[in-house]
Amino acid sequence: MSNFKDVTGQRFGLLTVIKRVKNDKQGNSKWLCKCDCGNEKIVRLSCLKRSTTPSCGCLTIKNIKKANTKHKLSKTRIYRIWKGMKHRCYCPSSNGYELYGGRGVTVCNEWNEFTPFYEWAKISGYQENLTIDRIDVNGNYEPSNCKWSTGKEQANNRRNNHIITYNGETHTLSEWANKYNIPVGLLADRVNRSHWTFEKAITTPKRLRNKHQIQQLFKEGE
Does residue 212 sit in the same domain as residue 195? Predict the structure, then answer.
């Protein structure tokens, strides 16, 4: 106790010491501090002196926000596209997560920051009426696998590649088409427009032999 130093009332960064609290398991003194933002935080004295904890954590958050908005584009459409892309891959509560992050789709390291993504978008044909689209729907978000598409193009891509589970296997429509050697457009037409059962859609021959066979199939249609 002879070495005890009372630092009550002293400031360290954004923290003002309120009082001493119980030491940690190693015997290091700990102090209850109040941050300028209003939050309270218990900090070891050694951390206060070395300025390794200059705030309750709000300073770190502030710096991150500053870094993310230094490009002055945080309110633009292209920035919202970038955020949406990351949310779909990394935020389980995001709409559609099960089709992206839930399936293992990720964003490449280069695009973890907005600026490289923005630079790629500028030289890759980005326009305000286009949306980001993956060439391989099972691949990741990365420069070699992404392009800018119209809403119609992307709708067709989604239609032809939505997820279907059949006999315990889960694949995109295009993967099923490849597996059963059926043109993806034909399979999509059978499933989406003609409303066939999936089993019927993949087991029916690509080319029907005669008019009677065609009529019979449509009589059995759902």
Answer: yes
Q: What is the dihedral of CA 178, 84, 120, 62, to 10 degrees?
A: -150
Which residues, including other chains, have CB under 8 Å from residue 59's CB and lie 6 or more apart?
Answer: 13, 14
Query: Does residue 96 fall inside a structural domain?
Result: yes
Give the pLDDT score at 66: 61
Find out whether 189 and 156 touch, Cβ atoms under 8 Å.
no
Among 116, 150, 184, the domain boundary falls at: 150
8 A C-beta contact, residue 12 and residue 28: no
Structural domain span for residue 77: 73-150
* pLDDT tens track for 150-178: 766 665 565 556 678 888 777 777 778 87
pLDDT class for 222, splitting at 50, 70, 90?
very low
pTM of the model: 0.45
What is the torsion angle, in degrees rounded to the nearest 10, for the CA atoms of residue 155, residue 174, residue 90 and residue 83?
A: -30
